[in-house]
Amino acid sequence: MSQDASTPDSRTQLDEAMRSFMARVVLFQDAVARSVGLNSTDLQTVGLLMSEGPASPGDLAERIGITQGGAVTSLIDRLEKAGYVTRRRDEQDRRRVLVVADEQKVIADVGHIYGRVADRWNTYLSTLTDDEIAVGARILAAAAEVNREEIERLRRER
Predict the structure, then answer these.
(1) Which of 54, 112, 124, 133 could be a cystine partner for 98, CB 3.0 to 4.6 Å?
(2) pLDDT value at position 1?
(3) CA dist 156 to 62, 68, 150, 152, 153, Å?
């Protein structure tokens, strides 16, 4: 007989699994970044530029939660030197500079790593029912939203 999802034992199991998953995600991202000579923040910045689009240096600093000025300039300089981003003039406002990810470079350098993980993940997902996948998706989406809200709270409290 299966346990109800709200029993303390199943909640404890989910809490432990989530803690482990979150720690492993951070460590995995760090390992991927280091494999191409970047640090975790650099790789996450490129990922945000790919998923959310180009940004001005100030907007980029806000997205990743660092102070504007020297810190974001150094980060952009490192990524530009490594070939992962370029600075371009904004077509709507030529006075403004945008930071743009070079998606081809990212795919060439780390795409195979993420592809391998996606293949393994898809193999596992093929063993689940659509209902099980839907529950997992809801849990992960809720966890992502909690994390997003807590990031915002921590940034406001700084």
Answers:
(1) 54
(2) 45
(3) 12, 15, 10, 6, 5
Number of alpha helices (DSSP H) and beta strands (DSSP E) in the chain: 6, 2
The domains of the chain are located at: 8-127
Residues 100 and 52: their CA atoms lie apart, in Å, by 10
Q: What's the pTM value of the predicted model, to 2 decimals?
A: 0.82
Tokens of 42: 């650099």
Token pair 């029993």 in the structure block, residue: 7
Angle subtended at Cα 40 by Cα 39 and Cα 46, rounded to the nearest 5 degrees: 95
pLDDT tens for residues 44-63?
Answer: 999 999 999 999 999 999 88
Residue 73 CA, distance from chain mean position: 20
Q: Which two tokens stand for residue 81?
A: 């030197």
